[in-house]
Amino acid sequence: MHFLITNDDGILAPGIALLAEASQEVGRATVVAPDREQSGTSHSLTLHRPLRPARRPDGAFQVDGTPTDCVLLALGALMEERPDFVLSGVNHGPNMGEDVLYSGTVSAAMEAVTLGVPGVAISFAGHDPELMKTYRSSLTALIRQVIATEYPPAMILNVNLPNLPANEVKGVKVTRLGSRFFSNSLTRMSDPWGREIQAVLASRLGWPTIRADAAGAVEPWLRPHVAAVQEAMGHGVFRANVPYWAEYERIASEAVERILWRNEKVPDMLPALAAKLAGLRQGRR
User: Fold this and answer.
1) How many angstroms separate the CA atoms of 251 and 245, rounded?
2) Which among 8, 34, 154 is positioned nearest to 95, based on CA atoms?
3) Distance of alpha carbon 13 from its chain centroid, rounded?
4) Which of 130, 6, 151 lies closest to 66 in space, CA to CA?
5) Is 93 helix (H, G, I), strand (E, B) or coil?
6) Interatomic CA distance for residues 268 and 285, integer angstroms
7) Distance CA 151, CA 173 (A)
C-alpha cells in the first residue's frame, strides 16, 4: 500500500509529520507538500510561473505551489508509481461546512479523486500540536479502516478529529456536510505610511443550525440538543432584537460545539449562558 501525503499548512507543519508517521505503520508514504503556508488557497493552480520541486534530506518533496499543485505534480512527475490513496492533512483547524470551499487540505483530496485516486482529508478541530499528537494510533487505525472499505467512485472522505485527547473520543459518526458561516472577516488597518488597508483575517464562525428556520436541516441526532440551546437562551426574544442577534448566534454556536465536541449537557452550561445573555441585555459583550 502506497500513500501520497500532502497538506496546506506546509512541509514543516506538525500535522503532516503525524500523518506520515501514522500511514507508515500501514504502508509506504511519499510526502509532497507546499514549502510554506497555503491555507485558504482552495483548489487553485499555479499557472503564471513554473513550479520548482525540491527534494529534502528526509526524502520528502517541497513545492513552491498550492496543495493542488502538489498532488498534480506528485502523480504526474515525482512518483514512479501512482499511489493507492492520497491523504491530506492533518490540518491545523477544522474543515466543516463552508470551510471545504476554501480549504487547501480538502482540495488536495478532491484533486486526487479528479485524477482517479481515492482522497481523504483529515483535520484537527484545534490548534494544540501536543493534543493533536495523541491521535497517532487512532490515525493508523482510521487509515486501516479506510483502505479496507469500498466507497463509491469519485467520493472523498472529510474527517474531523475533535479538539479532545484521543482517549476521550467515544467513536466515529458518519454524517453529511453541514453549514457554518463566517462573519467579521474584514479588518480595517493602516500600513506603515498611514494609508488604509483591508485584511482578511480569522473571522468568527457560527452554525446557522441554531436558527429556528434551519432546524429541519440539522442531523436528527443533534436536533434535541439544538432545541434545548434555543429554549435555554430565549431564542424568540433575541430573534426580534436585531442588534444583538449576531452575538446571540455566536454564543449559541459555542454551546452547540461544546455539545458536539465535549458531550456537555445544556443544564451544566446554563450558569455560563445566563451570564453571557445578561451581558447582552445590558449592551455588553
Assistant:
1) 10
2) 8
3) 15
4) 6
5) coil
6) 21
7) 16
* Euclidean distance between CA atoms 168 and 135, whole angstroms: 11
The C-alpha cell that represents 272 in the structure block: 455560563
Asked whether 112 and 118 are in contact (CB, 8 A), the reply is yes
When pLDDT is cut at 50, 70 and 90, the band that residue 206 belongs to is low
- Calculate ∠ Cα 117-114-151, nearest 5°: 50
Q: What confidence tens digit (pLDDT) does each residue in 212-260 have?
A: 444 444 555 566 666 666 666 665 544 445 455 566 666 777 777 777 6
Out of 3.40.190.10, 3.40.50.970, 3.90.1150.10, 3.40.1210.10, the CATH code matching 2-168 is 3.40.1210.10
Q: List the end-to-end C-alpha distance of the chain, in Å, as a whole number.
A: 53
State the Cα–Cα distance between residues 79 and 72, nearest whole angstrom.
11
pTM: 0.76
**225 in the Ramachandran plot: left (φ > 0), alpha (ψ -120 to 50) or beta?**
alpha
Q: Where are the domains of the chain?
A: 2-168, 205-281
Cell 498550492 appears where?
66
Q: Which of 188, 184, 158 is nearest to 173 (CA)?
A: 158
Rg (the chain; Cα; Å): 21
Query: Residue 264: what pLDDT?
Result: 75
Continuous H helices in 90-241: 99-102, 104-114, 129-132, 136-147, 223-232, 235-239
What is the rounded average pLDDT of the residues 196-202?
Answer: 76
Say which amino acid occupies 121: A
